[in-house]
Amino acid sequence: MDSVQIDINAGTVTVTMRDNAILSEAQAKQIVRDAGFTLAGFERLE
């Protein structure tokens, strides 16, 4: 992971990955669930 941006008002979290690093939707769901939240959506930007 390179950076994380959280917008509480919008209810969004943007994760920027380092080069050649991959965060799968399944990994994101587990991380969010472990933190006590629910992942409502997952979008990969190139």
Annotate the secondary structure layout:
Layout: E1 3-7, E2 12-16, H1 25-34
Walk me through what this model shows.
By secondary structure, this protein is an alpha+beta fold. It has one domain (1-46). 22% of the residues lie in helices and 22% in strands. It has one helix at residues 25-34, and strands spanning 3-7, 12-16. Strand 1 and strand 2 (12-16) form a beta hairpin. The longest helix has 10 residues, at 25-34. It is globular, with a radius of gyration of 11 Å. The mean pLDDT is 92.
On the 0-100 scale, what is the average pLDDT? 92
Largest sheet features: 2 strands, antiparallel
3D shape: globular
How many E strands? 2
Number of helices: 1
Structural class based on helices, strands and sheet pairing: alpha+beta
How do the helices and strands follow one another from N- to C-terminus?
EEH
**Proportion in β-strands:** 15-25%
Give, in spatial order, the strands making up the sheet with the most strands: 1-2
- Rounded to the nearest angstrom, the radius of gyration is 11 Å
End-to-end separation: 15 Å
Query: How many discrete domains?
Result: 1
What would the keywords be for this entry?
46 residues, alpha+beta, two-stranded antiparallel ribbon
What's a quick, concise take on this entry?
This protein is an alpha+beta fold and 46 residues long. Helices cover 22% and strands 22% of the residues.
